[in-house]
Amino acid sequence: MRILLLASAFNSLTQRVHAELRDLGHPVGVELALGDDEDLTAAVRRHVPDLVIAPMLTTAVPEEVWSAYPCLIVHPGPPGDRGPSSLDRAVQAGLDRWGVTVLQAVAEMDAGPVWASADFAIPPDVGKSDLYRGELSDAALRAVLLAVERFASGTCTPLMPATHTWQPYLSQEERRIDWHRDPTETVLRKLRAADSQPGVLDTFLGEEWYLHGGHPEDQLRGTPGEILATHHGAICRATTDGAVWIPELRPRRKPGSPPTFKLPATVAYQQRGAVTCAAPPRGREQPPTTRTRQPSCGTYSDITYEETGTVGFIRFRFPGGAMSTDQCRRLLETYRHALTRPVDVLVLGGSRDFFSNGIHLNVIEAAADPAAESLANIEAIDDLVAEILTTTDRLVVAALPGNAAAGGAMLALAADEVWCRRGAVLNPHYRLMGLYGSEFWTYTLPRRVGAAVAARLTEDALPLTAPAAEALGLVDRVVDCAPSEFAAEITRMADRLARSPGLPARLGAKKAARERDEAVRPLSAYRADELARMRAVFDDPDAPYHALRSAFVRKRRPNETPRHLRTECPNGD
Ligand code: COA
User: What is the C-alpha separation between 240 and 224, in angstroms, rounded?
Assistant: First the structure.
């Protein structure tokens, strides 16, 4: 069946639907809805689709499209639910279950008959975007694939839900935190419902900011609203009955000025000259090791190290999967600490959501010298990858609970084994950011998939499902479980691996293979070649990377659908 995806952006869910439908053998094209209904209608006609699916569309489907082609809309709410902030409202209300519906487009938004739906659990402590890329994405795929099957059968008729409930847009007024009244639980719900976008608008340190992300603090206490500490780029603010950590801030855009973008909280307010006189307390930063913790630093950490038996778990959670120079260096420090421990297996990766999306484009964009910061960031991630590649006395596992892209996908390939949650989407390419790429990918990618497939993956620049990545050799084990089960499943798998009788022989073979490879071409040569090409891009102010990065961080829409998406993509070669 010829399927056209209509989307406001080629976002994570659209990528997953694209990749899963291609895995099933459907030719799939994409058309972005960029504001001009006539252009969109003409583009849909050019595709001549059998079926149009809109996995993430924030505008209405033009009548000329839905009246001429069957259009299925993915709505992030259960049957009968309507409105633009469904998921935000479910999280803010503290619900423990929610749904996703595939309905037919009609004149009124979200009011069409239902082709399929699925429900999912909302874990108590996750942000909206994390939920969207995790539980909701899994449920959406179940519903989309069922809807496609029903549509293809030609024998199913979609059903109207018994009732409809319209829930309006969740305004900043409703999201606002009352620091003098709201207990921690309410503050966290509001922060999580707005995470990662649009954030919660708030005023402090003499400025208006959007607050992005929220984690509980177990020990620190203070006057409600007060900043109590900073740690790993996040700020800790007191509530009426506790405190919360806020990892990222975005200044409110001033009329006539360019769009603002999120940054680690401490970086964001250091950028604003206006607030330096009111800087929050200093001296509470914790050194980057994570095993011992000073009570004054509270209980938040974006990198942790734990051991179970002879397995060491290096867990990290970076908003948006972006890894700044500082984060890469701290992760390397933790990795080196793990190497001093009596463990046989090291597992690298978080419990939920993104594994990594490579260097931190926002921090780079905000730097006084973005070219120099780009290089510093790539050197820092390369140092980490080099340390992993030269670890010959332990087995290293990259455990991917969610999506990975660009340098973040290549980071995983440095490990001996890549374990990937079934629902994760992989983008092992750099081209769309105008970069050649580093992270020793010229060594690790062909080593896994061969030169021809490596060239195809980097050139096609298309997302892959975990099973497709496994079939190509990029992933060793697909872990088919819910997002909230991933950490426990990985712990079980790592324990089995650490106990396997073949482990010493494997380590011996690994050391020998590394020595052989080093003799053929040293790692330093791969790194030098990659960095020479990256430096040429960073140092050229006219290189597309700089404009692409600026547009990416400011969320500027492209003028047209990128050509590599528009082309109908059958799966396979
Ligand atoms: N640096 C900074 N922020 C990043 C990032 C990066 N490398 N990669 C992702 N993010 C942020 C996004 O801006 C977005 O922020 P938001 O939640 O405030 O909107 C968030 O992470 C989620 O990303 P989004 O693009 O919405 O997720 P997606 O699943 O739809 O798309 C990618 C995933 C990876 C395809 C896309 O984010 C991307 O192209 N990232 C850049 C990868 C890259 O080129 N890295 C640099 C080279 S190593």
Answer: 5
Query: Is 172-271 in the same CATH topology as 3-169?
Result: no
105: Cβ contacts below 8 Å, ≥ 6 apart: 52, 54, 61, 65, 66, 71, 72, 73, 112
Partners of 104 in the β-ladder: 72
Tell me the C-alpha distance between 42 and 58, whole Å: 19
Give the per-residue pLDDT at 288.
Answer: 34
Higher-confidence residue: 284 or 561?
Answer: 561
Q: Are 113 and 102 in contact (CB under 8 A)?
A: no
Q: Where are any strands of DSSP class E within 459-552?
A: 464-465, 477-479
Tokens in use for 237? 């603010």
Q: Residue 407: CB within 6 Å of ligand 1?
A: yes
Fold of 172-271: Methionyl-tRNA Fmet Formyltransferase; Chain A, domain 2 (3.10.25)
Confidence of residue 281 (pLDDT cuts 50, 70, 90): very low
Strands 28-32 and 3-7: parallel
pLDDT at residue 483, as a whole number: 98
The CB of 262 under 6 Å from ligand 1? The reply is yes
pTM: 0.94
- Find the radius of gyration of the CA atoms of the chain: 24
The minimum-distance atom of ligand 1 relative to the CA of 378 is 48
Question: Does position 249 have pLDDT exceeding 70, yes or no?
Answer: yes
Q: Is the CB of 359 under 6 A from ligand 1?
A: yes
Give the nearest ligand 1 atom to 403 CA: 29
Per-residue pLDDT reduced to its tens digit, 289-336 = 333 344 467 889 999 999 999 999 999 999 999 999 999 999 999 999
Report domain 302-482+503-553's class.
alpha beta
CA distances for 326 relative to 39, 302, 329, 356, 384, angstroms: 44, 12, 5, 15, 12
Fold of 3-169: Rossmann fold (3.40.50)
Pocket of ligand 1 contains residue 361 by CB under 6 Å: yes
- How do residues 183-223 score in pLDDT, each as one tens digit? 999 999 999 999 999 999 999 888 999 999 999 999 999 99
Q: Is 19 in the pocket of ligand 1 (CB under 6 A)?
A: no
Q: CA-to-CA distance for 31 and 337, rounded, in angstroms?
A: 48
Strand order in the sheet with 234-238: 215-217, 243-246, 234-238, 227-231
> Is the shortest distance between the CB of 358 and ligand 1 below 6 Å?
yes
Ligand 1 centroid to Cα of residue 359, in Å, is 10
Per-residue model confidence (pLDDT) at position 277? 30
| Per-residue pLDDT at 296 | 60
Residue 147 has pLDDT above 60, yes or no: yes
User: Per-domain residue ranges for the chain?
Assistant: 3-169, 172-271, 302-482+503-553
Pocket test for ligand 1, best of 8, 14, 357 (most atoms within 8 A of CB): 357
Cα 207 to chain centroid distance, Å, stands at: 29
H helices present in 100-197, as ranges: 128-131, 137-153, 172-175, 184-193
